[in-house]
Design brief:
The chain is an alpha/beta fold. The protein is built from 13 helices and 15 strands. It has a 9-stranded mixed beta sheet, sandwiched between helices. Strands 7-10 form a two-stranded parallel ribbon. A two-stranded parallel sheet has the order 8-13. Strand 5, helix 8 and strand 6 form a beta-alpha-beta unit. Helix 5 packs parallel to helix 7 and helix 7 packs parallel to helix 8. The chain is globular, with a radius of gyration of 23 Å. It starts with about 20 loop residues before the first helix and ends in a 36-residue tail after the last helix.
Length: about 400
């Protein structure tokens, strides 16, 4: 039987391999979005910048970004004095000591806010200070209102009086159709900006999802539990959350400052929510510890199965950045200052029922999810669940 001659096909040049996804990208199920371009540098360079919550996860990442953008001066504000002492020296190498101010202040103290603004005279303000743990705010709504609403109100009103050019407030995806006190306080922060427009200050809000990355407590907490063979507690097998890196969150704040025109609320396109159970398994695989025991505790008060970046009634607007969307909130309710005064008075008196009632009066879209924790609640001795349905208590938006 005759043999057929061998046909040698020319060897094709191998296609370049796609870049390896980073560990965080594999956890989130998407690539990290680059934000904060040249328009941000033009905005920050030569201006005096003030950051509240400066020693927090996002606040500190934001300060590290700002120091590279040639600001005229940087003021770090936080009620955590030790955190400020750690952060201050980290600005060296980009800013000299005379250009960095450390201010220990509680934003609930209107006089301290006034003093900081009058003394430093910022052109840009980034407000990242807040009480961010959903379960904690749900169990102590009076403290949540004081931290998240009174503090923001003091800063916004002070910014207008001192003619700050731009102020950006960090919010949460839980502000869209809120079911928790935390989400309601974040939504009120957005309304505060809307009510203050028309003056010398340009405002913007940024809704963030659950924050991953260093420094952050979620992955270290999760890694410890997995590597120690401990049970990982999740609230529900179908719970899903939007995740973003701390660099994305900081960049989004900066980009929002440059894009804002009329108290818009900005959101990063984070794709579909990630099932928390998948995130746990992905991280266990990265640790080469695929065996992980998961227990479900049930959704707690105020928790949703999944968050969404915009409410059903909000119109999505494109921006100059292909991965950033915006919406302009509806006008605030009539008599907002009077209603806020009533809410603050209820918080001062420690009247939780009245606080919840006033929140419903202020926000018709606030529909509390009043779920009781099941028996065997993690608060009764077992490990706390991740994320309020899955995450770290420290980063904003959780």
């Amino acid at each position: 039987m005759p043999r057929l001659p061998l046909r040698r096909t020319p060897r094709r040049a191998s296609a370049p391999e796609p870049p390896q996804a980073t560990p965080l990208a594999r956890l989130m199920g998407r690539d990290e979005v680059p934000v904060a371009g040249q328009r941000v540098r033009r905005l920050v360079a030569g201006r005096r910048v003030l950051v509240t919550g400066a020693s927090g996860t996002i606040g500190s990442a934001l300060c590290h970004r700002i120091k590279r953008l040639d600001p005229a001066a940087l003021c770090l504000v936080d009620r955590d004095g030790r955190g400020l002492e750690r952060l201050g020296p980290e600005m060296d190498g980009f800013l000299d000591e005379a250009s960095v101010s450390l201010v220990r202040a509680d934003l609930r103290d209107g006089d301290r806010v006034e003093e900081a603004l009058r003394t430093f005279r910022p052109g840009l303000v980034f407000h990242t200070a807040a009480q961010n743990e959903l379960a904690k705010v749900e169990s102590d709504p009076c403290r949540g209102v004081y931290d998240n609403v009174v503090g923001a109100r003091n800063l916004v009103e002070g910014a207008v009086r001192h003619e700050v050019e731009r102020l950006v407030l960090i919010s949460s995806d839980k502000a869209a159709d809120p079911t928790s006190v935390f989400g309601a306080t974040m939504r009120l922060g957005e309304l505060l900006l809307q009510s203050a427009t028309g003056g010398p200050t340009c405002f913007a809000a940024v809704r963030v999802g659950n924050v991953l990355g260093t420094p952050g407590a979620l992955l270290s907490m999760l890694g410890h539990r997995i590597s120690s063979g401990e049970v990982v507690t999740i609230t529900h097998p179908e719970v899903a959350r939007h995740f973003m890196t701390v660099d994305e969150a900081a960049g989004l704040l900066l980009e929002a400052a440059a894009l804002s025109e009329e108290a818009e609320t900005f959101v990063l396109d984070m794709g579909s929510p990630v099932p928390v159970i998948e995130l746990v398994h992905r991280y266990a695989e990265q640790l080469r510890l695929p065996e992980v025991t998961i227990r479900f505790s049930g959704l707690g008060p105020g928790e949703k199965l999944a968050e969404k970046p915009f409410s059903d009634g909000e119109r999505r607007l494109r921006t100059a950045h292909p991965k950033i969307w915006a919406t302009r909130p509806t006008p605030p309710p009539a008599g907002l200052p009077r209603l806020l005064d009533a809410l603050t008075a209820a918080a001062e008196e420690g009247d939780e029922d009245e606080v919840r009632l006033q929140l419903r009066r202020l926000l018709p879209e606030y529909r509390p999810a009043r779920r009781a924790r099941p028996s065997g609640d993690p608060q009764g001795g077992a490990p706390l669940p991740l994320c309020d349905a899955g995450c770290s208590p420290e980063p904003p938006g959780l």
